[in-house]
Amino acid sequence: ANLVIDGVRPVLAENCGIPAATRAKSWRATANGFEMLAADGSVAMAFHRTGEDAFEATSGGFTLSRAPMS
Fold first, then answer.
1. 2 belongs to a structural domain
2. Residue 45: burial class (beta carbons within 10 Å; 0-12, 13-18, 19+)
3. pTM of the full structure
4. Per the domain annotation, does 33 fall within a domain?
5. Domain, as residue range, for 59
6. Is residue 22 part of a domain?
7. Distance separating alpha carbons of residues 70 and 52, to the nearest angstrom
């Protein structure tokens, strides 16, 4: 989202199959990737950049990448 409130952007991940991600209510960019934050501001999941539009969770073994555009 382009909406930034107090340095974080809202996220809606309640239908995700990853329990830690479903706790996320916002996210923020970091120097090496991004963090998904719980409602209390604690880090639910953190990701570091592994390539162009590709990220890996710092724990949990999850990876994210941008879907190809058709």
1. no
2. buried
3. 0.79
4. yes
5. 9-65
6. yes
7. 18
Token readout for 15 is 């239908």
Tokens of 51: 């390539």
Quote the number of domains for the chain. Answer: 1
27 lies in a domain? yes
| DSSP-derived pairing of the beta strands 63-65 and 54-57 | antiparallel
**How many other CB atoms are there within 10 angstroms of residue 47's CB atom?**
21
Q: Which residues pair with 35 in a beta bridge?
A: 28, 46
Give the span between the Cα atoms of 39 and 61, in whole angstroms.
23
The CA angle 23-65-8, to the nearest 5 degrees, is 45
List pLDDT tens digits, range 18-70: 888 888 998 898 999 999 999 899 999 999 999 988 999 998 789 988 877 76
